[in-house]
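re: ur question from earlier - yeah i can do the single chain one, its not a big deal. heres the input i used so u can compare w yours
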Amino acid sequence: MKPSLRLSAVISWHRAILVAVMFMLAVPASPGWAEAQEDWGAAILVYHRFGEQKHPSTNTKLDQFKAQLAELSLGPYRVVPLREIVAALRGGSAPPDRAVAITVDDAYRSVYEAAWPLLREAGLPFTLFVSTDLIDQGAPDLMTWAQVAELAQSPLVTIGNHSAGHLHLPEHAAEKATADILRAQNRLEQKLGFAPDIFAYPFGELSLDLKAAVRELGFKAAFGQYSGAIGPRSDRYELPRFAMNEEFGDLERLRVATSSLPLPVEDLMPKDPFLKPSANPPLAGFTLRPGVGNPSALACYSNAEGLRVERLGRRVELRFAGPLAPGRTRVNCTLPAADGRWRWLGRQFLVAE
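and the output i got, formated as tokens:
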């Protein structure tokens, strides 16, 4: 994904989340509130570039990546193929505790030259979401089709669809968005001999209409790019992933993210994360499921200034100071869980440029 022009605006609030999480790790959940017994939880990581310091917003330094792989290999985690998490969401066997899936978007050349040798040596599975147009155009920083095909032959690698043109799909008519996804699907089948059954939204941007189109095209699941844990109640076509890069690639953040649990909620609003002018600012909120924890311990953060959290029993309302700026706005809500872990719900809203 191309570096976001708005990345600098979200640096401080990412730091605020981590600082608050670390501070509250020492504060146990109130014993008067029972922990919700969700069946399972899983975390998905998303990377883009490796060892490409010219692109810090999407790059992970190689020493960072090596340390992360060592932590994932030796720590209390189980790195599993993404398809196992998708299968669990579709009613299959639950993944193991602290299940983690590794994903990489866009198929940059540094994936093949730098990340793949390390992942192969560690024996860790990962999913590569491929955007096809730039590969067809021979972009010098993208993998070639021969390299993609080589990875696709490995039992450690799963290939997913990441669209053809890497457009801001919600901002286009449904017909154009569908045609773009199908063009990538056809190209992947031509080059690899199969059509992927999972999809990652470019820039993590989605809408109700786009979700419906992806579902109708037969994909089993689709993934965004905003923080949050996955559980049995998660929407298969709006699945979060923790983005990793130079700024947010330290081991403490990795540990917090990969140990996170889903925050089970009901009546999530607004239903459509693509905001029309009449729905901006959004009337956002959700209801915590019974027994999930103490609502007073819930904390929510956003890269939009002036977010106010209002609670009425288990109902949580999020009120913004004014209309959200064009582009992407993220909201993260966390709640202390047992064993120093965190329940985590993330959302991303999109306002057309």
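Residues 174-192 form the longest helix (19 residues). not sure if urs matches, ping me
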